[in-house]
Amino acid sequence: MRRNWFHRLLLSYVPVLILIVCLFVFIGVVQLNDLSRKEALKSSGVYVQNIQNSIDMSLNSIELMMLETITRNINITTFAGMQSDTNFFIELSRLLQSLTSTNPWIDSAYLYRVGDGTVISDKTKLNVEQFGDKTFIESHINNPELDSWSLPRPYRTVKDGNLEGTVISLSRSVPLQSKGIAMLVINVKISGIQEFLSKYGISEVNQIALKDSQGQMIFEQNGKNPKDDDITIISNYTGWTYTSSLKKEELGNIFNYMKSGWFIVGFLGLLLAIGWIVYITRKNYKPIETIMSRIEKYNQVHKEHPIQGPTVDELSYIDYTLSSIIEVSQEYQNQSLVNQKYRRIQLFHEIIDGSRPLEQADWNNEIMDFGMKQLGNAAVSIVEIDKYTEFISGHSREDQGLFKYILKKVVEESAEACGLRIWQEWVTNHRLCIIFLEEQQETSLESTMVTLTDQVRQWMQNNLKLTVTFGLGCTVHEVQSIHQSYESSARALDYKSALGSNRVIGHWEIELLSHDDLYVYLQYVRTIAQAFRVGNDGWQEQLKLLFEGLRRLLLPKEEISGILSYMNYYFYREMMELPPEYQELWNREFRTPWDENMETLETLDELESFYLVTITSCAQQMEEIRVSKGNHGVVQKVRDYIEANFSDPDLSLSSLSEQFNMNSSSLSTIFKEDFGEKFVVYLCQIRMEHAKELLRTTPLPIQEISERVGYLHQMSFIRAFKKMIGTTPGDYRKVHQ
Q: What is the pairing mode between strands 231-234 and 217-220?
């Protein structure tokens, strides 16, 4: 062994312990640094707030002084009243000088009068045209609402004079609340505010920056860079933005931290933890040593077939040994279960198929599993999931398996509640076969089966919205006869198409059925197809009569499918007589939907509904095609005339041409395009349909019937009838009357 498990445990625990301790130390240092940073940011916020309050208070005091001067000094108001005495102007200039001397931030002040454009400043008297601040006066004289401090701007006294500096200005109307009479303006030096910030806004910890309401920089300390955690305050008075940030970030003095007493205590605790890990690892290693010694002893005894595993470490060796033992045991157990399940399913199929004689020993074992000593009665029921194609397309594989499991479980619990013993297996993907077993022969097994299966059917429908159909077989008394019950159950289930789905069908329901002559209803097929092709409305009623007859016959699914295939063939043959556009329509509206849905149509009701909907749609679209053609009106009149005069023996294409003033060749072509057949064939079909009606509903002799449908000679009528219908009029009457 290159490394034993003791060293692996030791090397696994110690790095984790050291990592955790280092992590806690690092977290402590970071937390201390973060705490100090938060406190520094908090003090920085208080500091910049004080700076902002100081500047706002200074500017606000200038505004109050300005308002007090306008309100209390009569000379200001007198100036607005057009006083123009020279001494008066000198006194006003001195007044303005006193205003500028009261606050070191005030750079200059002046009065402007609208009446004569006079400007009196703290330095001189000028006309507004000579005054360097004319633009500011014009923008504020008629806008008293601009009562806040202006943005920083250059200022000069004389229009063409030198720039005196950058100022912010505050203007007020004279008298107050007036408009366009006079105005007092006080200018504050930006340099004064910058000197204030340089003196009080710069420290070793904080950096201050100031921007006006338009974002232009007023003051910024050298080297300041924007940061995410900067403290930003916007003044409600001036709209200026004050920004403060810390100059530098430090994690603290790590060496001082390591010299502290707490670090020494933590280091001693780490050494103690390492010692404890060594001790407990040694103690926990004892079971590994014991297991390894037992494996070594086994290898010494079984030298021919020792356990050869990986030699990386002891635990891998033990894991390999246990895995080998478990794998062999599990493989043996799984194989045994698979074989047992396979034998059980095979026995089940042998019983229901009757394919070979059943071994009595096998059956006796199954009887014991069911808790029975002997077989009294047995009967088979097959349950089929309705609309299985929709079932598999509408649910995932997992959901399908879940539904099937629930079905078996419901059958099992229902049988247990009725005191029946059952054996059930899936014989196909959608059919579950159930064998009901009883020890006594005196009990009525079939009545109990009917009750149980109907309960299961209702439960599946109400709780899972899934419908199933049960077929019940006959009761037998020997295990060798169970296949007979299975066959009768399957035969009963074959009649689901005729009797309907979502129900219980007993074998007794079909054993006494007396089928009428199927030939009677097959005669409707040709009539329906021909009437549909020529556009007669009678095909719908005849189609309904056909399905009513199929319901009365109670045919199994295979025979119903054969009849419908026969009818589809006749429809196809009739449509092939029509132009290509009609054939395209038939393939699109009927044949394609039939190929897609034939597997999901299980009952006669569903089949009848499908035929009526699809063929009615085809008939409507065919009629639209006929109407779109210019000759449809003429053809309709010709058809109505034939219906009214079919009994006329002289009715011919020539007589029709004379009747409607048309060329016989043109009329024949139009007739062929609309109905897909010649006039003679169409006339014969009309006469034969009326003849069949008379044969079915009247006792008239055949000679008279032939005359009524347009035949002067009886033999001509009989030959035409047999050629068209396939039988003589007399035989047809025997079958249908």
A: unpaired
Q: How long, in residues, is the chain? A: 737
Contact 108, 120 (CB under 8 A): no
Q: Give the list of residues 6+ apart from residue 444 with CB closer than 8 angstroms, or none.
A: none
Give me the residue label for tokens 């479980």. 409
Instruction: List the beta bridge partners of residue 183.
Output: 112, 173
Phi, psi of 356 (to 5 degrees): -150, 160
Among 511, 512, 507, which Cα is nearest to 476's? 507
- State which amino acid sits at residue 488: S
Nearest to 149 by CA among 71, 68, 235: 235
* pLDDT band for position 302 (cuts 50, 70, 90): low
497, 537, 540, 547: which is closest to 386 by C-alpha?
497
pTM: 0.42
The rounded distance, in Å, linking the Cα atoms of 635 and 212 is 94
Please return the burial class of 513, using the count of CB atoms within 10 Å of its CB with bins 0-12, 13-18 and 19+: exposed
State the Cα–Cα distance between residues 699 and 707, nearest whole angstrom.
15
Q: Where are the beta strands (DSSP E) in 404-551?
A: 421-426, 431-438, 468-476, 504-506
Torsion over CA of 670, 674, 680 and 684, rounded to 10 degrees? -160
Q: Which two tokens stand for residue 273?
A: 């933890």
Q: Which of 711, 617, 632, 710 is nearest to 670 (CA)?
A: 632
Average pLDDT, the chain: 79
Q: Which residue has the tokens 């598999």?
A: 392
State the pairing for strand pair 165-174/182-189: antiparallel
The residues that bridge with 471 in the sheet, in sequence order, are 382, 505
Cα separation, 534 vs 131, whole angstroms:
107
What Å distances lie between residue 313 and 321, 493, 558, CA to CA?
A: 13, 66, 70
The rounded distance, in Å, linking the Cα atoms of 248 and 36 is 12
- What is the C-alpha separation between 82 and 118, in angstroms, rounded? 10
Residue spans of alpha helices (H) in 554-701: 557-575, 580-586, 592-597, 604-628, 632-645, 653-660, 664-675, 679-697
CB atoms within 10 A of CB 338: 10
Peptide bond into 104 cis (omega under 30): no
Q: What is the CB neighbour count within 10 angstroms for residue 115?
A: 12
What is the residue type of 347? L
Give the pLDDT confidence of 74-125 residue by residue, as tens digits.
888 888 788 778 888 888 888 888 888 888 888 889 888 888 888 888 888 8
Cα 52 from chain centroid? 57
Range list of β-strands (E), 44-151: 106-113, 118-121, 125-127
Task: Retrieve residue 401's tokens.
Answer: 């398996």
Tell me how crowded residue 622 is: count the other CB atoms within 10 A of its CB: 21
Beta-bridged to residue 381, according to DSSP, are 434, 472
Q: Which of 103, 110, 126, 127 is nearest to 55 (CA)?
A: 103
SS3 114: coil
Cα pseudo-dihedral 612, 615, 618, 620, rounded to 10: -40
Do the beta carbons of residue 483 and residue 351 sit within 8 Å? yes
pLDDT at 371: 62
Q: What distance in Å separates the CA atoms of residue 641 and residue 659, rounded to the nearest whole number?
A: 10
State pLDDT tens for residues 591-628: 888 888 887 887 888 888 888 888 888 888 887 777 77
